[in-house]
TrEMBL record:
<keyword id="KW-0805">Transcription regulation</keyword>
<dbReference type="InterPro" id="IPR047640">
    <property type="entry name" value="RpiR-like"/>
</dbReference>
<dbReference type="InterPro" id="IPR000281">
    <property type="entry name" value="HTH_RpiR"/>
</dbReference>
<dbReference type="Pfam" id="PF01418">
    <property type="entry name" value="HTH_6"/>
</dbReference>
<keyword id="KW-0804">Transcription</keyword>
<protein>
    <submittedName>
        <fullName>Transcriptional regulator, RpiR family</fullName>
    </submittedName>
</protein>
<dbReference type="GO" id="GO:0097367">
    <property type="term" value="F:carbohydrate derivative binding"/>
</dbReference>
<feature type="domain" description="HTH rpiR-type">
    <location>
        <begin position="28"/>
        <end position="104"/>
    </location>
</feature>
<dbReference type="GO" id="GO:0003677">
    <property type="term" value="F:DNA binding"/>
</dbReference>
<dbReference type="InterPro" id="IPR009057">
    <property type="entry name" value="Homeodomain-like_sf"/>
</dbReference>
<dbReference type="InterPro" id="IPR046348">
    <property type="entry name" value="SIS_dom_sf"/>
</dbReference>
<dbReference type="GO" id="GO:0003700">
    <property type="term" value="F:DNA-binding transcription factor activity"/>
</dbReference>
<dbReference type="InterPro" id="IPR036388">
    <property type="entry name" value="WH-like_DNA-bd_sf"/>
</dbReference>
<keyword id="KW-0238">DNA-binding</keyword>
<dbReference type="InterPro" id="IPR035472">
    <property type="entry name" value="RpiR-like_SIS"/>
</dbReference>
<dbReference type="InterPro" id="IPR001347">
    <property type="entry name" value="SIS_dom"/>
</dbReference>
<dbReference type="Pfam" id="PF01380">
    <property type="entry name" value="SIS"/>
</dbReference>
């Protein structure tokens, strides 16, 4: 398959077309692809991407010359942008955008997510904006997520003797949630957010074990170090990130992609939290499916173990 040229801060880079095509196919998730790739674009290609995202419906109605004029670029740049996004040409891009914006309108996704939340905004309006942003992020994640990679991750965890989960700050909270879920179905999992403890634990991993690194940017140094240590010991490494070409993704055996939709007071890393939880919930269920009898027995025992700590009805006055 032909590689695509993409403008980067260092110049023109060649992007593996297979990587682009794995993110999504045909006309599905065009805008998700553009949003997900925005951080990797600079210069003229980034201006095209930003213009498309600012008004997708106008982009779908524009000719290639009109879009070039409005974005301050050239028709040749538009063609390069289309190929970088995995399309054969501008006609395919327009069709994909038109199809996606039509589905969004029919689903009622009409809230202006990019609008700044003002101090005087009523909470009802803020709620609508948050819900719309999360809905878009979930939809984009479903588009970007490679289910074959989820399958591979689930098989690895189901067979693992031990699972280590690495993350810092907010990603650590997501990791702890995954640890709890896996424990409930009998999977030996530990979540680490301290780099010293995490490195020590990673050093004891071996072939047959699994390590999961969580970082939206894929650039958190501590998480990268812990996952790299785990990989050097022979563990199967997984990365949950929003950037497929990030350092964390590059060193992982299996990459699970998530999307985000930033709003006021909710930057990308924070808005990625719900999609991360959804993807890990899917992975958890996939593991439970593959260890069905063991998972059922463990879930029953763990539920019984805490049942005595529930307050009896009417005991609280």
């Amino acid at each position: 398959m032909v590689d695509h040229e993409v403008d980067t801060a260092a110049g023109t880079a060649v992007v593996d077309a297979d990587v682009v095509d794995r993110r999504s196919s045909a006309s599905d998730g065009v805008l998700a692809r553009v949003r997900n790739g925005l951080g990797e674009l600079t210069g003229a290609l980034r201006r095209v991407a930003e213009h498309v995202l600012s008004d997708p419906e106008a982009a779908a109605r524009s000719t290639i010359v009109e879009l070039a004029e409005r974005s301050g670029t050239s028709p040749a740049t538009i063609t390069r942008f289309c190929r970088a996004m995995g399309f054969e040409g501008y006609a395919d891009l327009r069709l994909g955008i038109a199809s996606e914006t039509g589905r969004a309108r029919s689903a009622g996704w009409t809230v202006d997510i990019g609008r700044e939340i003002q101090p005087s905004d009523p909470l009802g309006r803020v709620l609508d904006q948050i819900m719309a942003a999360d809905t878009r992020a979930m939809h984009d994640t479903a588009t970007l997520l490679d289910l074959a990679e989820v399958e591979r991750a689930a098989v690895a965890i189901a067979r693992a003797n031990r699972v280590n989960i690495f993350g810092a700050s907010g990603s650590a909270l997501v990791g702890e949630e995954m640890q709890f879920s896996l424990h409930r179905i009998g999977v030996a999992a530990w979540a680490w957010n301290d780099v010293h403890e995490g490195l020590a634990s990673a050093a004891l991993l071996r072939s047959g074990d699994v390590a999961l690194g969580i970082s939206h940017t894929g650039q958190t140094r501590e998480t990268i170090e812990m996952l790299a240590e785990a990989g050097s010991r022979g563990a199967t490494t997984l990365a949950l990130t929003g950037f497929p070409r990030s350092p964390l993704a590059e060193l992982a055996d299996i990459v699970l992609l998530t999307a985000s939709q930033a709003t006021t007071f909710r930057p990308d890393a924070l808005s990625a939290r719900h999609p991360q939880l959804v993807v890990l919930d899917l992975l958890y269920i996939a593991v439970a499916q593959r260890t069905h009898d063991r998972a059922h027995a463990a879930f029953r025992r763990t539920a019984q173990a805490v049942d005595g700590h529930k307050a009896a009805k009417g005991s609280v006055s």
